[in-house]
From TrEMBL:
Residues 697-740 are annotated as: Disordered. Residues 7-62 form the 4Fe-4S Mo/W bis-MGD-type domain. This is 4Fe-4S Mo/W bis-MGD-type domain-containing protein. Keywords: 4Fe-4S, Iron, Iron-sulfur, Metal-binding. The keyword Transferase does not apply. Residues 725-740 have a biased composition (Gly residues). Residues 715-724 have a biased composition (Low complexity).
Amino acid sequence: MLGGMLTATTATHCPYCALQCGMNLRPVGDGVEVVERTDFPVNRGALCGKGRTAPAVLSSRVRLDGPLVRRPATGRLEPATWEEALRTVADGLRGTREEYGADAVGVFGGGGLTNEKAYTLGKFARLVLGTSQIDYNGRFCMSSAAAAHQRAFGLDRGLPFPLEDIPRTGCVILVGSNLAETMPPALRYLTELKANGGRLIVVDPRRTRTAEQADLHLAPRPGTDLALALGLLHLVVAEGRTDEEFIESRTTGWAEARAAAMSHWPAQVERITGVPVPQLREAAAMFCDAPEGMVLTARGPEQQSKGTDTVGAWINLCLATGRAGRPLSGYGCLTGQGNGQGGREHGQKADQLPGYRKLDDPAARAHVAGVWGVDPNTLPGPGRSAYELLDALGTDIKALLLMGSNPVVSAPRAAHIQERIESLDFLAVADVVLSETAALADVVLPVTQWAEETGTLTNLEGRVLLRRRAVDPPEGVRTDLEVLNALAALLGWEKGFATDPEEVFDELRRASAGGPADYAGISYRRIAEEDGVFWPCPEPGHPGTPRLFLERFATPDGRARFVPVTHRAAGEETDAAYPVVLTTGRVVSQYQSGAQTRRVDELNAAAPGPFVELHPRLAGRLGVAEGEPVAVVSRRGRAVAPARITTGIRPDTVFMPFHWAGEGRANTLTNPALDPTSRMPEFKVCAVRLEAVRPQAGPAPQAGVVPEEDPAPRAGTAPQAAPPVGGGPAVSGGPAVGGG
Ligand SMILES: Nc1nc2c(c(=O)[nH]1)N[C@H]1C(S)=C(S)[C@@H](COP(=O)(O)OP(=O)(O)OC[C@H]3O[C@@H](n4cnc5c(=O)[nH]c(N)nc54)[C@H](O)[C@@H]3O)O[C@H]1N2
Ligand SMILES: Nc1nc2c(c(=O)[nH]1)N[C@H]1C(S)=C(S)[C@@H](COP(=O)(O)OP(=O)(O)OC[C@H]3O[C@@H](n4cnc5c(=O)[nH]c(N)nc54)[C@H](O)[C@@H]3O)O[C@H]1N2
Ligand code: SF4
Ligand SMILES: [Mo]
């Protein structure tokens, strides 16, 4: 049963990814159903299975419908009144602060939160808690691209042009994006590109559904995109295909960047990446032959301990060929979460104030403190990045308020992070479901979801849109804004934390005014009338800015900055004991930590559990057949999931999706090596070994396995048989699917 219904059909947006597809919701029976909404230009009615089935998560069968408090007597989470739950949270946060100081209280947010929530959460941390210790899961998402954007262009908006420009450019290099599974309705832009005669190059170690659409698929070894991009730039220079006029008039720093690229010889790049020189040449020629071109990156090249430099190298390629700051050309990042763009602009990031202002900039502090009516000196300074914050739980940080993330499943080195979370004195989680992380909390606050509340989100194009309430929430839940308002009041802030999203948005507009991400001219009414408004939009009369950088870049001198970058190894390279590369990512039917989508029957039927994707040669040496359990072991831990055998992956690499908890949790294995600039963990590369897990009792015969060939052998890393590890759990019966 849903709490209640508004009667008319409502035009709104999907709860999940950054495409923010438009949909209509129509009341039906005791729920709502999704009906096609063709007037929203981004998806023109198309939806993926997750969006189509999203109303299932509104049902009381799967969601939280009242607060839970952990009872000392039983040690269990049990139902409580809102009054008791909120008081317990306020006492927990206040008590920690009084005992250990303000920075002993942490806040962790999410890129799925609306702009209004992200803004309020940041304000709550800085004013009410007075803590510097706030960060969010976007750090795990597009932070490397954001850092590279800032460095090169002086501004970070994921796509500096609307998606509708893609079909009209000449050539797209899509790097580490599996769009066909992660944003299915956006695949249309690539098919239209090809129909218009444009070319598509996909860079991915796996032949994904997206790579199958490509004119040219380059399959580098994970973690080597930086060398690949530099190799392409080397060829572009060597073949005289640079755009000297553009370099001269619109950029700085070319000499150094050029010299850095020229030290990456094609043959050496082939050795590092495994991509043959003729393919490198073909890619460089395809990109330069087209009159316009774009490079689009997603998590593949970004979630690396050198993600910022890697994106920087792709940007250098765009700048050197004049494919930036011009119509139908440029570099863009495909941001991931529903509000992945807006969520990184309004102050839930450790170093940031609303409007994409910097927390250590005195003018920014003065402006925002003015809007908030406080003395700028009372605002704390920058805090720790997401992984560092989670890693400090239980030691420096004793209490945590978590809103919009499920790190037990999604954080790197997850067993360690889970243990850190368990060692907290106090954990409060606001969520719509009892996620794996919420299950560890002292207090769980059940909140309203997408279709039950109104708020703005900024999609991957920088288009600010309005997600409208379409259904009444059930009685037992409150909005995140109401939760923050009530907690603020209990902690002595009766005013300043509005519960009406439009009122919060109007304050956010003022706080962002004059900042890089300027929303001052955007209003709920305007968004409703125009298909969303692109920031920056400094005044009500301003049309918004779909295309950035056409006249000048956002640097002080208006020129884009080349950055001299050189290739370096991954945080953890393969060796004799861990001879295989593990990379991780997504499948079409599950979303993120799976907290929401694992509760939808249709999606579970399509993607019931984790798996280990591996090449037949690797499977053969291991002696596992399709569907049989495989143990994947890294220096962080061990995971077991059924084998999925495919020739569409490099023989030296295995892939696991990260959507599940339990035995098949991919993040038990991942390496939290951080990018020095963005503090992004290395989700896309770590070293593992594989073991067959024989499904029977008794001492399990296990075979260590190494890849048959390492296309990029390094000194001292000659493959040899890994010693089998005993003591692993023998799996009985069918495939070992963890979580669910
Ligand atoms: N179905 C679904 N859709 C989603 C999400 C979801 O969880 N499920 N999440 C949303 C979010 S938050 C995000 S961030 C986006 C992510 O969207 P994507 O970036 O498209 O998703 P991933 O599967 O993480 O990674 C993309 C590809 O990178 C490849 N890859 C792995 N290692 C490397 C490497 O070293 N180099 C290169 N070039 N490629 C590599 C993988 O093989 C994979 O095919 O998706 C959004 N959409
Ligand atoms: N190995 C590996 N790990 C990865 C990645 C990878 O590619 N590989 N990708 C990383 C990336 S790109 C991302 S974005 C992260 C995402 O990982 P998480 O941060 O765990 O993201 P979600 O699973 O979306 O978690 C959101 C939680 O908030 C709840 N929620 C949803 N909406 C709201 C709301 O409005 N309010 C509140 N209070 N709660 C809400 C959901 O029910 C869910 O429990 O995972 C990262 N982890
Ligand atoms: S592509 Fe993304 S926004 Fe569109 S329906 Fe699917 S999950 Fe929702
Ligand atoms: Mo993401």
